[in-house]
Amino acid sequence: MSDSSPSPATSPEPHRLEAVRLEKLHALEALGIDPWGQRFDGHVAISVARDKCPTEFGTDGETVRVAGRIMLQNDRGKLKFFHIQDATGRIQLMISMKDVPEATWAAIEQLDLGDLIGVDGRLRVTKTGEKTIFVVGLTPLCKSLAQPPEKFHGVHDIEMLLRHRYIDMIYNEGVLARLLDRTKIISSIRQTLGAQGFVEAETPVLHAIAGGAAARPFVTHHNALDIDLYLRIALELHLKRLMVGGIERVYEIGRVFRNEGIDATHNPEFTMIELYQAYANYEVMMDLCEKIFLDAAKAIGKDSFILPWGDKTVDLTPPWKRCKYGDLFREHAGCDMHDADAVLAKAKSLHIETTAKHPDVLVNEVFEATVEDALIGPVFVIDYPASMCPLTKRKRSDPSIAERFELFVHGLEMANAYTELNDPRLQEETFRTQLAGQAEEDSMAKMDHEFVYALKVGMPPAGGMGIGIDRLVMLLTNTNTIRDVIAFPLLKPE
User: Does pTM top 0.85 for this prediction?
Assistant: First the structure.
């Protein structure tokens, strides 16, 4: 994608057209009209107006008041047609010169595509079946000085649309609806958790120690204290402190920041939820995960749990499959994850760099290369190697295995959960093991002694889970790239 795409109005033609719009703005001012609009009370959503419209030609409906942006114009002299749009839909307007005051008609002559207007009129259906407002009053609400993108070219300039997301939302069907679905999904998560007694918390974005995940942080500096700080890479460690303090069911939905790559499923700034439930474990988290996903699907109007995903489908009908990490490794990699020599040979056959890598790191890289893309799902991959899970409680029957799951759908990781480790001695030991060999600039390169102390005070046994909100929205809205579910994804400067 080009990094030097021009803004919509850098060529001579848009400038000329914008000059014409400016002339019309002055004409509105000469008529005594505020081109930027004023308060406009009593209007209803366009979808409400459409629902009230009669279905038979020749039948008068209610008088309604609506507001929206002009998307289409058709000038037939003394008869004008517009299509206006709000967040709920579009409706046709028909304005006859004989039905409105002379001053209103003069204002209508100064309207352009993209302008915001409010109208009053009678609902009727036309001979062609078009739901229409027959306008008797019109109020300019905001003059648009920018020329809209050319329908068949500019509206598909991806670079321009990402930089000017508001244009994408206005002129590309489905973009606004998808972002509104995102808000419904987040609201649904809050409702689901609230009904189960969870408390929403807010924790610091600036951390003195980057922890809670293995990722590279963004570094900033606090001038007054003269210390470096990190934008948080996870929500976990502060939420657990709150659980120590007595909030037995706690969650946060918030932004986290990881100084890593950008691709179809990764953005350096993204939204996640982390939640913790005292006296639970990872099996409780699996049940809760299913409920969160299914309630969110219902919240955006899904009437079936079989959803489209590109040219495939996803069947969210519960209960979801549960498969052990070791069994999947054996099936797809063709060797046992505990057989270090076999894992090394497999890694080399996959052209994975093996020099100076710990055997457990190679196990994880072989798993990613051979298993993840084969996970159609939804499937909970459970019981990970304990060495990969420094914040996770071990199985009492096998301390080499951690009570952890990751949820996968068509190879995409959607959620990560643990039975939380609450033994401060073991936690300190696993931290030290993990810190060995960490690059200084990477996360968790320093011991979080405050968190270890909190565990010494006593954290109840608990289940904890993190879900990537952006990926959940991708799944439920059938969107194949994360940038399309984030209103303003990170881009290089123009």
Answer: yes
With 0-12 CB in 10 A as exposed, 13-18 as middle and 19+ as buried, what is 65? middle
- Alpha carbons within 13 A on the beta-carbon side of 207: 26
The residues, any chain, with a CB within 8 Å of residue 160's CB and separated by 6 or more, are 5, 6, 7, 8, 149, 154, 167
359 phi/psi in degrees, rounded to 5: -55, -35
pLDDT tens, 467-490? 999 999 999 999 999 999 999 988
The secondary structure of 155-194 as a DSSP string is: GG-HHHHHHTHHHHHHHSTTHHHHHHHHHHHHHHHHHHHH
Residue with tokens 């037939």: 76
Helix 424-435 with 449-458: angle, nearest 10 deg: 160
Residue carrying the six token digits 């499937």: 379
* Residues near 15 by beta carbon (within 8 Å), at least 6 away in sequence: 9
- The residues facing 468 across adjacent strands are 272
Distance CA(382)–CA(396), nearest Å, equals 15
Q: Cα separation of 44 and 120, whole Å?
A: 11
Quick check: 423 and 414 in contact, CB under 8 A?
Answer: no
pLDDT in tens, 221-264: 999 999 999 999 999 999 999 999 999 999 999 999 999 888 88
